[in-house]
Structure formats: C-alpha cells, structure tokens
C-alpha cells in the first residue's frame, strides 16, 4: 500500500495571494490565450520550492489573452493558473524564456499547448501520462473496495493482481521517460514516483545529470541528500540498529538476532496487501525457522490493540516491534520505507543482501540461501 509521495503535489501549501503588482520589466515573458473566459480574471504565477508561494500576476482579458513579464534568476518549477492548488499549469521556467500558452480555462494541466519551453513540454508530457495511469489505478481500487465490501476474496485477489501489474507497467513507463529525459528538469518530478531503494542507481544517475541545472534548487537538494543517505541501507551495507518495543513493551534489538538470516518485515494491521501476504510469510517462517532464520517484524501501526489483534488473527509467531507512530516509525524512516509491505533481508553478519522481496521472489531467495 503506497504512501503517496508525489514531490510537486506534496508541495501544495495553504498560501493565498492577497495582492501582487505586475512588474514593469523582466527577463521572462509568459503570454497566451485561455479559452472559456468571458470576463477579466487574474492569472497567477506561483513558485514551487519547499512550499508554494505567490510570485507574479497578470490580467487575462475577456478575450482570454494575457501577458506576464517576470524577473527569474534561475531555472525552477512554477505553477501558472487561477489558483495554487487547482486549475493550473505546471511549468519549468528558465531565465530569458519566452513561453506561449494556449488552453481551456477548465483544463490546463496535461492539456494546454506550450511553445518556447522544451523543459515545460517534457513536464506536461509526464503529467499527462501519469494522469491516465492514475485514472486506471483508481478504477482498479474501486474494484478492490467493492470486492472487499461484498467479502468476495477471489475478486479482491484478482483486482490486487491487476493493480500490481498496472503498477509495474507504470513504473516501466516512468523509467522509459527518464531514459529519454534524464537531463530534463521534469525528470525530478518523474523520480518522485519511483522508489529510491529499488532504483538507487537510476536516482544517482539522473540526479548527477541534473546537478549542473539544479544544484541550488531546494527540491533537488532535499532529494539528493536523501539519496546520498540511502547508501547506508543499500545492499552490501551493514543494517542500522533497530531498538524498539515488542508486544510486551520491552525493547528488542535487531542486532540480538546476529548469527541468523533475518528478514525485516515492515507491515501494518491496516495494510490489506500486508495482511494478504502474511499467510505466505507464516508458511515460509514455519519452513525455515529451524534453519537459522528469523523474522523481525516492524509494524507501522498507531493503535496498539489493532496491532496485537492482527498478530493473533494472522498467527504471527516471530519477533514483533512497533513505536506506534505510523509512517513516522523510526525504523521505517531509517530504512527509507515508502510503501508496505517492505522487506530487508540480512545475512548472519547483519549485512543487507536483498531488499523488496516478497511472494515468489522471497520464497526463491530463502530456498537459495537456506
């Protein structure tokens, strides 16, 4: 179950533009025609950094025509539209750009025509693709919810398989986009829909390519710092310590299991894919628990009773810990867990030998090493 982490979307703030005067001079010109407007309206340019802030404004005539002249010092993400969180068009604006836009008032993102900015065209191409993908994902999720409401396990499983296949297909499309646009600023938005754990080398490659353009951009520097820190939990590194309360309230250390192969299993009682996967994990645990294998379960629950109830219902016998802080779980933060179920496999010396294994892949890996 994904924790939604779309970089540009998450930067939506609660800012409201009270007033802004149109500058008389500048180095960037954004002009265009917005159809569907029958009276004068203000159109705003918002700058996206660690938050969304008002940057400039212009008047759209009743004919739909407008022109905005702004002073922009370095390339960055911007949002042009009638509100900072809806009815807008995402742009990548560079110094000395002259951008022409045409579109409809009710639908700009992914639909407007853009001339004069190849960077913005690439960004819109990506958003248009992801919009179609999200529509498909939403449809499948509705199937899953309907099956769950009607307690139809077969349909739920089929829908879940469909969802995973769609997710894999979308990941492939994103990687293809990155392959074709690895030096475009839009690549930074595309990276936000990939997992830096599973695609660490791709993140490093793209971020290195973008460094000349974005070295001082706060969105870039934040992601770059995170990826740099990932080296500590990549395959080949010694796993950081986890010391957290078990079901009896006493702290249990991950390092106490040294000498065994250990599967760190990040899950939660509220995570349906986790609960569906648990019977398979139980079966594998029973098969290998006497062969120097142990599981260290880390729950991203917030309610102790629901966590303990799930342990009992799913017949979980292995080590279980939680700090009951949900997605802010300390171990999940340390290991950069962005979706669950998530697994990290350690050898007897505590070295990470695999990440993200589950289902058949996990079963095959355990058979190989044990």
CATH level-two architecture of the largest domain: 3-Layer(aba) Sandwich
| CATH-derived topology of the largest domain | Glutaredoxin
Structure class: alpha+beta
- Global Rg: 24 Å
Spans of 5+ residues with little confidence (pLDDT < 50)?
2-24
| Topology pattern, helix = H, strand = E | HEEEEEEEEHHHHHEEEHEHEHEEH
Summed over residues and divided by their number, the pLDDT gives a mean of 90
- Count of discrete domains: 3
Give a description of the structure.
This protein is of the alpha+beta class and 370 residues long. The protein has 3 domains: 110 residues, Sandwich (Immunoglobulin-like), CATH 2.60.40.1120; 110 residues, no CATH class; 127 residues, 3-Layer(aba) Sandwich (Glutaredoxin). Helices cover 38% and strands 23% of the residues. It contains 10 helices and 15 strands. The strands form 4 sheets. It has a 5-stranded mixed beta sheet with strand order 13-12-11-14-15, with helices on one face. The chain has a 4-stranded mixed beta sheet with strand order 4-1-7-8, with helices on one face. Helix 5 packs antiparallel against helix 6. The protein is elongated. The N terminus is likely disordered.
């Amino acid at each position: 179950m994904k924790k939604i982490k779309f970089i540009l979307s998450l930067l939506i703030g609660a800012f409201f533009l009270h007033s802004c005067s149109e500058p008389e001079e500048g180095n960037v010109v954004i002009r265009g025609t917005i159809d569907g407007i029958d009276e004068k309206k203000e159109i705003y340019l918002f700058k996206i950094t660690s938050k969304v802030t008002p940057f400039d404004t212009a008047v759209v005539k009743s004919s739909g025509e407008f022109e905005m002249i702004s002073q922009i010092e370095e390339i960055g993400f911007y949002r042009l539209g009638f509100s900072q969180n809806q009815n807008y068009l995402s742009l990548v604006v560079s110094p000395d750009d002259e951008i022409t836009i045409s579109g409809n008032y009710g639908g700009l993102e992914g639909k407007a025509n853009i001339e004069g900015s190849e960077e913005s065209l690439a960004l819109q191409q990506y958003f248009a693709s992801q919009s179609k993908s999200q529509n498909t994902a939403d449809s499948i999720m509705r199937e899953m919810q309907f099956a769950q409401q009607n307690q139809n396990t077969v349909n739920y499983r089929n829908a879940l398989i469909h969802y995973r296949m769609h997710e894999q297909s979308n990941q492939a499309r994103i990687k293809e986009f990155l392959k074709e646009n690895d030096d475009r600023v839009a690549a930074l938005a595309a990276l936000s829909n990939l997992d830096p754990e599973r695609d660490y080398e791709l993140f490093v490659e793209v971020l290195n390519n973008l460094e000349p353009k974005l070295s001082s951009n706060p969105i870039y520097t934040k992601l770059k710092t995170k990826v740099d820190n990932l080296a500590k939990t990549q395959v080949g590194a010694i796993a950081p310590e986890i010391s957290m309360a078990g079901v009896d309230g006493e702290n249990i250390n991950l390092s106490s299991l040294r000498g065994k192969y250990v599967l760190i299993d990040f899950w939660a009682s509220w995570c349906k894919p986790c609960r569906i996967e648990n019977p398979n994990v139980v079966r594998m645990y029973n098969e290998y628990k006497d062969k120097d294998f142990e599981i260290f379960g880390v729950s991203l629950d917030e309610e102790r009773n629901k966590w303990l109830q799930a342990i009992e219902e799913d017949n979980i016998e292995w080590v279980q810990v939680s700090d009951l802080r949900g997605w802010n779980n300390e171990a999940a933060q340390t290991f950069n867990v962005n979706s669950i179920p998530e697994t990290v496999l350690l050898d007897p010396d505590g070295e990470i030998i695999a990440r993200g294994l589950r289902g058949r892949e996990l079963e095959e890996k355990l058979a190989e090493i044990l």
